[in-house]
Design goal:
Number of helices: 3
CATH class of the largest domain: Few Secondary Structures
Helix content: 25-40%
Shape: rod-shaped
CATH topology of the largest domain: Invariant Chain, Chain I
Order of helices and strands: HHHEEE
CATH superfamily of the largest domain: Thyroglobulin type-1
Oligomer: single chain
Number of domains: 2
Strand order of the largest sheet: 1-2
Low-confidence stretches: none
CATH architecture of the largest domain: Irregular
Distance between the termini: 149 Å
Radius of gyration: 46 Å
Strand content: 5-15%
Length: 178
Amino acid sequence: MSEEHLVSAPSEQPGITMRSTGGSNKQALKVAGLTVLAALLIAGQAFTAYSVYNQSEKLSLLERRSDRLQELTIKARANRTPMKMAVPMRSFPLLVSADVSDKKVEDAPPTKAPLTRCQQEAAGLIPISLPSFKPKCDEQGAYTPEQCWQETHCWCVDKDGVPVPDSVVEGHAQCNAA
């Protein structure tokens, strides 16, 4: 048997030489980088298409629900009933003393005698600044001395319906008929 050296002498070792030109290595790295980038872009688009395809049934369900909600909203707006408004009591005297003489008077139905202003307001022919208020009139059509709003707040008026200052109270007002 012949003996072979496991390690050869340094002079016998093959040398690896590196070229310093660098042009072909840089170009190869650029091509590899662009190839990886293109592969990632294509994979991203494929994943997006796959996700949209898998979610298309859910998307169409959401579209149908959205359309149904829009229909219900439109119907709800059409069937909405007027809401009762809460009027703060601190603004109550302002509402009572508001001048409504400049508002348009609608034509009254033909009657034997013309209606007084109190009778027109009570019949709803003349708009009143206080919501859901109808004045009380006596037999001659004049305003009664005490006027009440929803039987909770009352005040005194003169014969023409002008409120007496500082007469608004909760409950019945003590109005002296003059």
